[in-house]
Amino acid sequence: MFDFPKDAIKFKDFQKNFSLKEYSKGYRGIIYTLNFNNKRFAVKVPAKEELIPSFKKEALILKFLNEKGIFFVPKLIYIGEDFFVYEFIEGITFKQFLKTSNNKDSKIILRKLLIYSYCLDKLGVFKDEFQRPFTNVLVNNRKVFLLDFERGALNKFWKNVPQFLQFLLALKILSKDEIILFGRKYKKNPWEVIKAVLKKI
């Protein structure tokens, strides 16, 4: 399907064979874009060698979620020794979206984020950034995608929604008493809590 290497190779070797353009650079990693076979891909590389293990973990998390049919995360294409490639996702960050959107559209995205955090909880994937989903969430019209799982973990259940409740507290959608109440109930009756919070948004 793609002429990517069959075996895992290092980024320096991958770079020799493909034309890459730097797209964004952060403290933890660098994103390059690659146009290949009439498709656009993102190539994610750790900024420091000591971050390679967390990037490998992120690739494994994405692979797991892809295999489970989760559509709101990047589609993984290739895993190298110290980088990975996924289908490029068009969109703006949630932070940018909040600055320009109306209240109705913002609530639609918030409801989707709540549902997505619940889906990850059911699968035991902890993202560990739902309390500040500003730059690791992309919005394209009303489609929402979750990025940056290098801080995440597998087999860690029921942690994302409690974090997202903290975000809703910061937005003054929920009160402190409400998130304490919902937090206590969540593990025992998760879907009941989700339905109650959806009504609040």
The tally of helices reads: 7
Order of helices and strands: HEEEHEEEHHEEEEHHH
Dominant shape? elongated
Q: Could you say which structural class the secondary elements and strand pairing correspond to? A: alpha+beta
Number of strands: 10
The whole-number mean of residue pLDDT values reads: 94
Order of strands across the widest beta sheet? 1-2-3-5-4
Indicate the percent of residues in helices.
40-55%
Distance N to C terminus: 43 Å
Largest sheet: 5 strands, antiparallel
**Radius of gyration (Å):** 18 Å
Layout of helices and strands, plus pairs?
Blueprint: H1 11-17, E1 21-25, E2 29-36, E3 39-46, H2 52-67, E4 76-79, E5 84-87, E6 92-93, H3 94-100, H4 103-123, E7 125-126, E8 137-140, E9 143-146, E10 153-154, H5 160-170, H6 176-186, H7 190-200
Antiparallel strand pairs: 1-2, 2-3, 3-5, 4-5, 6-8, 7-10, 8-9
Quickly list its features.
single chain, 201 residues, alpha+beta, 7 helices
Characterise the protein shown here.
The protein is of the alpha+beta class and 201 residues long. Helices cover 42% and strands 21% of the residues. The chain is built from seven helices and ten strands. The strands form three sheets. A five-stranded antiparallel beta sheet has the order 1-2-3-5-4, covered by helices on one side. A hairpin with a 2-residue loop joins strand 2 (29-36) and strand 3. The N and C termini lie far apart (43 Å). The model has no long low-confidence stretch (mean pLDDT 94).
Short description, anyone?
The chain is α+β, with helices and mostly antiparallel strands. It has helices at 11-17, 52-67, 94-100, 103-123, 160-170, 176-186, 190-200, and strands at 21-25, 29-36, 39-46, 76-79, 84-87, 92-93, 125-126, 137-140, 143-146, 153-154.
